[in-house]
């Protein structure tokens, strides 16, 4: 018969169990004594100074005597553990201002196992053993650390620490697997990472692996889905990820098909109203093409920069605000621009707009029309600054 143990999981949510019995912490799962238990279980058996714990729990709250408050919290946790499914005994130990959780039973914590493996990974010299540590650690990482407490400062700091370790080990693991040509493992692991952190760059690893495995249609579908989401939601890739994403785009290909099927593939599936929305790399390609074509005198265009403003008329900085106002700005683009015009989101608060066929003297009128419609959609608040960047011959 397997001996019971206290098992605590804090990645992707919080659960604590002793064998088949669950420690519920009552209705106050986010209570201070519950948080104290979680802090101690990030490193079971390891000591935490009372000052360190008090700062984590009460730093941002108005507490007159944090030491007395912490003593009361320790008392409440002791009382709860005594009434919990755990066997009778002492579990909280306080010695010379250092508190730790231990006992006669075995204790395991996913975050402590993860951290222990990450530390071993950093010091390990054998490449194969480093990979094994990566695989085991990344399997434990099932999501953000205690997401239900994401507003707590101590959780934010811990979450950043674990996230950094996770990314570092995953990238090492992917580089190794790519060198081994094991694209199936990369695709599987990248799919898991994408579920935890969607549209943060893990899709590029999936797409690259699907291309290497000759799964072109699946790779293209994921590429288009990722590109569309990044454009519409305002997700942004790092410079390194952007370069990788463009390289993958150049690798995409389809199986040989008839001329009729090729024609069907190239037709826009659902032609919407107003300007055409595309990804920033796609916008860049369109711009480069127009700069080449204009030398032949075949087309006129103007490049505009549209910046979302806050209530004081300054470039907006709050990301949530920019995302919300960006949806309204895109509605203005679709309502007041022609189907031949093209736009893309450049940054949090900036959009690029290619007005094909528009001459320089008409740009002011186009910008005023966009700003007026945008203000109406925003209830008269904020606005958008439209500035000419290129009249087709500047750069």
Report on the structure:
The protein is an alpha+beta fold and 395 residues long. It is 52% helix and 14% strand. It is globular and about 85 Å long. The model has no long low-confidence stretch (mean pLDDT 86).
Describe the protein's topology.
Elements: E1 5-9, E2 15-18, E3 21-22, H1 32-41, E4 48-49, H2 50-58, H3 66-83, E5 92-95, E6 98-101, E7 106-109, H4 110-123, H5 127-140, H6 153-180, H7 183-196, H8 202-212, H9 216-233, H10 239-251, H11 259-266, E8 276-277, H12 280-293, E9 301-309, H13 319-336, E10 342-345, E11 350-356, H14 363-377, E12 383-390
Parallel strand pairs: 1-7, 8-10
Antiparallel strand pairs: 1-2, 2-3, 4-6, 5-6, 9-11, 9-12, 10-11
Helix pairs in contact: 1-3, 2-3, 4-5, 4-6, 5-6, 7-8, 8-9, 8-10, 13-14
């Amino acid at each position: 018969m397997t001996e019971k143990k206290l098992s605590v999981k804090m990645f992707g949510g919080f659960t604590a169990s002793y064998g088949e019995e669950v420690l519920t912490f009552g209705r106050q799962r986010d209570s201070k004594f519950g948080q104290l238990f979680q802090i101690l279980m990030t490193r079971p058996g390891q000591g935490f100074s009372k000052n360190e714990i008090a700062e984590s729990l009460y730093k941002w709250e108005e507490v007159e005597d944090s030491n007395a408050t912490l003593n009361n919290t320790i008392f409440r946790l002791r009382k709860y553990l005594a009434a919990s499914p755990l066997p009778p005994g002492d579990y909280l130990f306080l010695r010379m201002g250092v508190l730790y959780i231990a006992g006669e039973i075995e204790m395991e914590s996913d975050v402590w196992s993860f951290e222990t493996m990450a530390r071993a990974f950093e010091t390990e010299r054998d490449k194969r053993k480093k990979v094994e540590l990566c695989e085991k650690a990344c399997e434990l990482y099932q999501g953000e650390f205690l997401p239900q407490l994401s507003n707590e400062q101590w959780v934010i700091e811990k979450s950043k620490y674990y996230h950094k370790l996770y990314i570092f080990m995953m990238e090492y693991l992917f580089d190794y697997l790519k060198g081994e040509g094991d694209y199936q493992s990369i695709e599987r692991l990248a799919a898991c990472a994408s579920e935890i952190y969607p549209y943060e760059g893990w899709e590029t690893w999936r797409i690259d692996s699907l291309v290497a495995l000759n799964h072109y249609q699946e790779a293209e579908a994921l590429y288009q889905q990722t590109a569309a989401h990044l454009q519409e939601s305002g997700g942004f890739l790092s410079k390194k990820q952007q370069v990788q994403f463009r390289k993958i785009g150049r690798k995409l290909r389809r199986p040989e098909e008839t001329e009729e099927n090729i024609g069907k593939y190239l037709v826009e599936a659902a032609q919407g109203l107003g300007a055409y929305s595309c990804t920033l790399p796609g916008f860049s390609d369109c711009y480069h093409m127009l700069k080449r074509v204009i030398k032949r005198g075949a087309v006129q265009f103007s490049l505009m920069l549209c910046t979302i403003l806050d209530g004081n008329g300054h470039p907006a900085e709050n990301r949530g605000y920019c995302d919300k106002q960006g949806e309204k700005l895109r509605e203005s683009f679709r309502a007041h621009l022609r189907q031949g015009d093209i736009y893309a989101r450049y940054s949090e608060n900036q959009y690029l707009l290619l007005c094909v066929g528009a001459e320089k003297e008409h740009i002011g009128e186009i910008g005023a029309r966009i700003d007026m419609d945008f203000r109406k959609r925003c209830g008269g608040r904020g606005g958008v600054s439209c500035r000419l960047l290129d009249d087709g011959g500047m750069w």
